[in-house]
UniProtKB/TrEMBL annotation:
InterPro entries: HD/PDEase_dom, HD_domain. This is HD domain-containing protein. Residues 26-127 form the HD domain. PANTHER family: HD_PDEASE DOMAIN-CONTAINING PROTEIN (PTHR33594:SF1), SUPERFAMILY HYDROLASE, PUTATIVE (AFU_ORTHOLOGUE AFUA_1G03035)-RELATED (PTHR33594). It comes from Alkalibacterium olivapovliticus. It comes from the Bacteria. The lineage of its organism: Bacteria, Bacillati, Bacillota, Bacilli, Lactobacillales.
Length: 214
């Protein structure tokens, strides 16, 4: 099977698997990450085949979506083998999807340009207008309130603490989203992130004006 067919089949599989997902990690999120990653791969002259497959598969092992991460990893590996992806390419793809998350890499440097690109594309979808919409969708899915002025914001708060402890949608901006601009890897992503970050700052100014009924 040629690479174009493998990407196409993987796209259909992921689309079917995530079509009813309700936390902001649905198929349309995957599609945007895939498109952005493909765009960045061309600009950075990376391996587009590896980038596209990793972008399409990156959320299938996310512990926000699966209860058994080990089983999910095995299922993705099985899919790649069945689709005809070589063992060396499978190893590269699995390394990417296991290390690009906000908490997954534990701060270690990503092993390849392809990993940096997929991570940038995923993080770009977490900021800007779409990022704001996804933030509120995710907060609602975990039962968080819109905003709680009684809750403090800690700059060192981890993603795990946010997911498991009391928080609010607006607090998540400070816990994660406003930090992402400085964490982009590629120059192309840094340029896009500047504009999306500025949009979020403007949104928060408007939000707090309305919160105080000004």
């Amino acid at each position: 099977m040629n690479k174009e067919s493998i990407v196409s089949d993987t796209k259909e599989m992921v689309k079917d698997k995530l079509k009813n997902e309700g936390t902001g990690h649905d198929w349309y999120h995957i599609e945007r990450v895939w498109k952005m990653a493909s765009r960045l791969a061309k600009r950075e002259q990376a391996n587009s085949y590896i980038v596209e497959l990793a972008a399409l598969l990156h959320d299938l092992i996310d512990d926000k979506l699966v209860s058994d991460k080990g089983k999910a990893i095995t299922e993705v590996e099985y899919w790649l083998e069945g689709a005809g992806v070589s063992s060396s390419d499978t190893e590269r793809i699995m390394d990417i999807i296991q290390t690009i998350s906000y908490k997954g890499g534990n701060g270690r440097k990503l092993s390849s340009l392809e990993a940096q690109i997929v991570q940038d594309a995923d993080r770009l979808d977490a900021i800007g207008a779409i990022g704001i919409a996804r933030c509120f969708a995710y907060a609602g899915s975990k039962g968080d309130v819109l905003f709680d002025p009684e809750l403090s914001v800690r700059e060192d708060m981890t993603e795990k603490e946010y997911r498991e402890g009391p928080s609010s949608a607006v607090h998540h901006f400070y816990e994660k989203l406003l930090k992402l601009k400085e964490l982009m890897n590629t120059e192309a992503a840094k340029e896009i992130a500047q504009e999306r970050h500025a949009f979020m700052e403007e949104y928060l100014m408007q939000f707090f004006e309305e919160w105080e009924a000004e």
